[in-house]
Specification:
Chain B: Belongs to the sulfur carrier protein TusA family. Chain B: InterPro entries: TusA-like, TusA-like_sf. The structure holds 2 protein chains of 2 kinds. Chain A is mainly α. Chain A is 62% helix and 2% strand. A two-stranded antiparallel ribbon of chain A has the order 1-2. The longest helix of chain A has 20 residues, at 11-30. Chain B is α+β, with helices and mostly antiparallel strands. Chain B has one domain (2-71): 2-Layer Sandwich (Translation Initiation Factor IF3). Chain B has helices spanning 14-25, 38-50; strands spanning 2-6, 30-35, 53-61, 64-71. In chain B, strands 1-2-4-3 form a 4-stranded mixed β-sheet, with helices on one face. Chain B starts with a strand and ends with a strand. The chains are: A mainly alpha, B alpha+beta. Chains A and B meet through strand 2 and helix 9 of A and helix 1, helix 2 and strand 3 of B.
């Protein structure tokens, strides 16, 4: 007997998810999030690393509630629809390293695939180079997939293991409630806060959390994934997920136009630089690493919410990568790439290629 | 001929890749795919449908689903 189909997994479900996320992301900017950064998983995890004091880049420190909402919203959806599956054991250290370098690439470009889309929707022409890099990186990743690359099977485990990442998110949410942002203060209790720069720009806590929960819920149901959108098209000529990604861009563009947030051009775009080769190369690295890890940074959070411990390890890798990125001067700023950004991308590509060439296992 | 694919514990896109490889091999008129998560079930059914195969049966065994795909 066939199960009742998951409506959100259909063509209109994924497009609806893209429309919903695109609209909400543009509105979050209206509510206070940084320009073209209504939702950016890489940027927000980097801000979280800063809020926890793992790096001391003063302009990017804030415990972003959207990220917690993503995981917890997905957890809620997974429980409601009986899809919570605690599982782990598919090459966790490899996933950590991929997350680590995916973040380094994203911070050279200044954004994850979600933000690349939002930057484009806000009129930032440099995003085109990032998106081209993303496609190129994912294409490279599909060559490895075709050549037999895979990270092996996961095992089912106790529920507690699947709960660890959601509990970590709840713990951070509790910290933010106990030590909220105080205007003009760079620290409250154990948390660090930006007093200027993008880290100081944020929507009210409950708005951010609510948006994150809603996106997490809908993305879990629809399997929304920006990397998968491009990968499935390259690999199978399948446009299912791509529909969602394009819907996000178009909707964010329309909402930006409606609320006066569309400013076409290359120069002077918010939290962006115009070193186009490095915009391309940063996202090339990110795209490859996301493809080898099987999901964009958002998807990894949603998977972590439904009990995937390997996706949770990838998330931790991204947080660690963000800390190192800023501590080592790998991350870009509006002035251009960091002093060691080039080396960061080169090492990341070498590490990803090493993983791509070496992780093979016959499955069938 | 029936081909059976064990895609349990594998995450996207592996279950789809294995299924499409079996379709492409052209030896089977029935393919059985074992998956253990909903996303894989949806993805395998969608990909097979796009290749003109039909989902003849879905049977749940605990957390696992056994997908039976038929040619044409």
């Amino acid at each position: 007997m066939a199960k009742i189909r998951n409506i959100m997994a259909g063509r209109w479900g994924i497009i609806g998810a893209g429309i919903f996320i695109g609209a909400l992301a543009a509105l979050l900017q209206k509510f206070g999030n940084p320009g073209n950064m209504g939702v950016c998983v890489a940027c927000f995890e980097r801000d979280i690393a800063g809020a926890l004091g793992l790096h001391r880049a003063e302009v990017v420190q804030y415990l972003r509630p959207e990220v917690m909402g993503f995981v917890l919203g997905s957890l809620l959806a997974a429980y409601l629809f009986r899809e919570f599956r605690p599982r782990l054991g598919s090459a966790p250290i490899v996933r950590f390293v991929l997350g680590f370098f995916a973040m380094i690439g994203a911070l050279v470009f200044l954004g994850c695939p979600w933000r690349a889309a939002l930057r484009l929707a806000g009129g930032d022409g440099s995003a085109i180079f990032g998106l081209l890099g993303l496609v190129a990186g994912i294409w490279l990743g599909t060559l490895f997939l075709k050549g037999g690359y895979n990270l092996g099977r996961s095992q089912s485990t106790q529920s507690a293991a699947g709960w660890l990442m959601p509990l970590f998110m709840l713990g951070m949410l509790a910290l933010l409630m106990i030590f909220p942002a105080i205007p003009g203060a760079s620290k409250n209790g154990v948390l660090w806060f930006s007093v200027k720069g993008p880290g100081a720009m944020h929507a009210p806590l409950l708005v951010s959390l609510g948006a994150g929960l809603a996106i997490g819920f809908i993305a879990q149901r629809s399997r929304f994934c920006t990397m998968g959108a491009i990968r499935d098209f390259v690999l199978f000529r399948q446009t299912h997920l791509l529909g969602g990604f394009i819907a996000l861009i178009v909707t964010a563009l329309v909402v930006n136009l409606l609320v006066g947030q569309f400013h076409p051009g290359f120069e002077g775009q918010p939290v962006a630089h115009t070193m186009q080769f490095w915009n391309f190369a940063g996202m090339l690295l990110s795209g490859l690493a996301f493809c080898l890890a099987g999901g964009c940074p958002g998807r990894q959070l949603f998977l972590a919410g439904e009990g995937d411990g390997d996706a949770a390890v990838f998330v931790l890798g991204m947080v660690a990568g963000a800390a190192v990125s800023h501590n080592f001067g790998l991350a870009s700023s509006p002035a251009g790439i960091g002093p060691y950004g080039m080396q960061g991308v080169a090492v990341g590509l070498l590490a990803s290629l090493f993983i791509g060439f070496s992780m093979r296992k016959k499955m069938a | 001929m029936t081909t059976t694919i064990d895609a349990r514990g594998l995450s996207c896109p592996q279950p789809v890749m294995l299924t499409l490889a079996a379709i492409k091999a052209g030896e089977a008129d029935e393919i059985i795919v074992l998956v253990d998560n909903e996303a894989s079930r949806e993805n395998v059914c969608r990909a097979a449908g796009n290749r003109g195969w039909t989902v003849a049966n879905l049977s749940d065994q605990g957390d696992e689903t056994r997908i039976t795909l038929n040619k044409g």
